[in-house]
Design goal:
This protein is of the alpha+beta class. The protein contains four helices and six strands, in the order αββββαββαα. A four-stranded antiparallel sheet has the order 3-4-6-5, with helices on one face. Strands 1-2 form a two-stranded antiparallel ribbon. Helix 1 (about 1-25) runs antiparallel to helix 3, helix 1 (about 1-25) runs parallel beside helix 4 and helix 3 (about 105-145) runs antiparallel to helix 4. The mean pLDDT is about 90.
């Protein structure tokens, strides 16, 4: 049971780090990334569909995203949804594909984005600490029920803390990397 708690905690912490990393990827830096379009949906035959499932998305150049819909009749819908989004990028539709030229960020916008990624990172760290708290509560209950000894409890709490430190470090490293991406000119 005690090993199960550690395994579950590790898995949940990995998911928190992945989720934080995914949120980082949806934030526009000065370079093109297909992940920027993850929050864009179109009406695809009456179904709300993620853009990446209705088209081929490629990055031919560092500041260009190329969107080739599987069916050209959806070009206008894709273009409309990109304009409605908060990306701040104007699409160019040539009748076959849509090109997105990712403009470089100005200094003020860079600082806003750094604040945003710091908030996302803090949310990720809070999620990991909540997982630690839940694991420790379960371990304390096991000790009070007589399933483990006080020494086992202390040892396991240290292992949970080590896990917490490991995953918070991963979030901090991802944050540092994203900040560097945003601030590079």
């Amino acid at each position: 049971m005690k090993d199960k708690i550690l395994i579950e905690s590790r898995k949940k912490m990995e998911q928190s780090v992945e989720s934080t990393g995914h949120e980082f990827n949806t934030i526009r830096t000065g370079r093109a990334s297909a992940a920027l379009l993850d929050n864009i949906f179109i009406d695809y035959y009456g179904t709300r569909t993620q853009l990446k499932h209705a088209s081929n998305i490629s990055i031919p150049e560092p500041r260009t995203i190329l969107i080739s819909p599987y069916e050209p009749k959806f070009l206008k819908e894709i273009e409309t949804q990109i304009i409605k989004s908060d990306l701040g990028i104007n699409p160019t539709n040539d009748g076959k594909v849509i090109r997105l030229a990712v403009p470089p960020l100005n200094e003020e916008r860079r600082h806003e984005l750094v604040k945003l990624v710091k908030k996302i990172a803090e949310d990720g760290r809070v999620a990991i600490r909540n997982i630690r708290r839940d694991a420790n509560e379960r371990l304390k209950k096991m000790e009070s029920d007589g399933d483990i000894t006080k020494d086992d409890l202390l040892k396991l709490e240290k292992e949970v803390q080590d896990l917490t430190d490991e995953f918070i470090d991963k979030i901090n490293n991802a944050l540092q990397q994203k900040e560097n991406e945003i601030m590079e000119v």
